[in-house]
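Hey,
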Amino acid sequence: MTRMRRIFPIGVIAFIVACATIEAIGLEDVAELYKKGFELQHAGKLKPALAVYDRCLEQDPTNYKALFASATVYYAMGDYAKALARFEKLLSFYPDTGRIPLYVAYCRLHLGKVAEAKAALDRIVVNRPKDVAAIIGLGWAEYLSGNRFTAISYFKKALALQPGNKVLAGTVSRLESTDEEYLKERKAAEEQRLTSELDNAIAEVSLVRARARAARAAQRMPEDRSAVEKMALLDLMQVREEPKKKVRPYPFVPHR
């Protein structure tokens, strides 16, 4: 009996150590996979990068970096429905983290969910009145709702906060233009051009910042990537540690 009592704790300890070792190996594999996926994304190979990120998520479904990276890939590819699903899943695990609510709002704008996007952007601006990207989003929402002059006022407000944003300045100039040729353009073509310009304008919000310039110089940001892809890559470069996951407390059970 004494011998069994001595062996049992040793066996338990060995089992725990083995489990910890297996878990550590799994996490290391996910980290290596993520690194490979980021390198592919950085090289502009979006589909192969996405496949690698999905392999990360098969092993660790709540992995912040892999979820965020795969969502930005979908966004850069123009698959806004899948990007939205990934960003919303991120919010369910890590509520109100970084720029994720902004990405969610922009995905909704692309998908025509203007009212939902506007409500989300309003919340962002209430907390951060000088958030240029959110203000641009509000302008976009007003434009898509047919409120051209209200949209221009938002774009001007954003431009006042960031006068160096040449893409946004060009958009404001064209919207204010009374040129007959511009006014005769088909609405669909006008909207398509505007949304493309505004995606680049929000990207410029990141790209003109000092941190973005430093990151681009350090990581040798590929110059042939689109502004939106650069924005996504820069956001990924800022990820250092995973935020704390939302923990649901156990329900309180009163003693009888």
